[in-house]
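This part of the workshop introduces the protein records we will be handling. A record pairs a protein's sequence with a compact description of its fold. Backbone structure tokens are a discrete shorthand for how the chain folds in space. The question running through the whole workshop is how a given chain folds. The record below serves as our worked example for the rest of this section.
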Amino acid sequence: MRKAAVTTVSTVAGVVLLLSLKPHVNATPAVAAPSPSAPSSAPSSGAPSPSPSTSRTTSASPTGTYTGDTFDTRYGPVQLAVTLAQGKITAVKALRTPSGDGRSQQIASYAVPQLTSETLSAQSARIDAVSGATYTSEGYVQSLQSALDKAGV
């Protein structure tokens, strides 16, 4: 009986200790890793170096509509056309979406508008997938990135 009481008290004390631990919080802000194109041997002078995006002028920013490659997903192909104005994404049009069966059409009909909205907000292909439309989301992002690559963005 005494052994059971000691074991119970020890277990409860261990659980209390574990629950009272606080995760370590880093007080300094996170610093982004250098981009692969940036030279890693450059000495740090403390002054920020210009990034490729800050040295770009607006006159060289692409304007027009760029068609991404077609990407075949498990449920059908996805292809997008992206419209840019001065390097900003102003519209995304789905040229092809999965339509092999009614369920695929239904999924694409609710996923594509959500993905388009996220794209316009993020101004890039770094967007979250739509729950329940993983394959369509992956094809969307791939075609979007393809179009942005063609535009040089």
User: Anything to note?
Assistant: The domain at 61-151 is CATH 3.90.1010.20 (Sufe protein. Chain: A). The beta strands are 64-67, 71-73, 76-85, 88-96. Residues 35 and 51 are 9 Å apart (CA to CA).
